[in-house]
Design brief:
With about 240 residues, the chain is an alpha/beta fold. The protein is about 30% helix and about 25% strand. Helix 1 packs parallel to helix 2 and helix 7 runs antiparallel to helix 8. The longest helix is centred in the last third of the chain and has 15 residues. The radius of gyration is 17 Å and the shape is globular. It starts with a strand and ends with a helix.
Length: about 240
């Protein structure tokens, strides 16, 4: 019923620990995404179907590659460093949402990146929304994202013009345009430290965020704002 998709980049220890907690009923598909031999060796014996890329494809391309092998009605995207609360994965099948909800997120506990919010504009970052009760939101994070495979395929997957940052926001925006909603279920709690791949690969999170933000503004009909943002960001890159 649910295929689990995990893109790993220099987070093998966290990925192996996560896979050890996955209950029966999930088919785990993992992409080793250009980390090198150490991560390949660490993941070789893990309980998953392992795919290996010699280069870092980024999150959008990585998920799309795994999704082409998926067969279940629902896809669950998890970052390797996500730690679902006890019972969350085991009870997930009983919490699958009815249409028109096609994308479902959970509630992060403790510090870490945002798990959901409203679509960003030029000057604001992500605005938090109250999630004390289940209900629609603009977007949910790809770190913990449950989505209907048919809708993901209808949308053509993630836009691969994003490397990493805001591809999940873009997907939720495109889904809404086609009548599919994103929602959050606060009973689906998880911890997420976040950004481990960036720290270990010494890649610039800020640069990827700025590029993703400009692309999102452009794709949502705000080319002038995107151009202004790119011009301002050129001072930093």
């Amino acid at each position: 019923m649910i295929d689990l998709l995990i893109v790993n980049h220099r987070t093998a220890a966290e990925c192996v620990a996560l896979l050890a907690t996955v209950p029966e009923g999930f088919r785990a598909l993992v992409l080793e995404n250009g980390s090198g031999s150490n991560d390949r060796e660490a993941l070789a014996g893990a309980p998953c179907e392992l795919d290996v890329s010699e280069e870092n494809l980024g999150f959008a391309r990585g998920v799309n590659r795994l999704a082409r092998r998926a067969r279940a009605e629902w896809l669950l995207l998890l970052n390797p460093d996500v730690v679902p609360a006890p019972g969350v994965l085991a009870g997930l099948a009983a919490r699958l949402p009815p249409a028109p909800i096609a994308i479902l997120g959970g509630e992060r506990t403790g510090p870490g990146p945002r798990a959901h919010g409203r679509f960003p504009g030029l000057l604001d970052r992500f605005r938090r929304v109250d999630a004390t009760a289940a209900g629609p939101v603009d977007w949910v994070s790809g770190c913990f994202m449950l989505l209907r495979r048919a809708v993901f395929e209808e949308l053509g997957g993630f836009d691969e013009g994003y490397f990493m940052q805001l591809e999940d926001v873009d997907l939720c925006w495109r889904a809404r345009r086609r009548g599919h909603l994103a929602a959050v279920d606060p009973a689906l709690t998880f911890a997420h430290r976040g950004h481990l791949s960036y720290a270990r690969a010494e890649r610039s999170l800020a640069r990827d965020y700025r590029a993703g933000k400009a692309r999102f503004l452009e794709r949502t009909g705000r080319p002038v704002a995107a151009a202004v943002l790119r011009a301002a960001h050129s001072l930093f890159d």
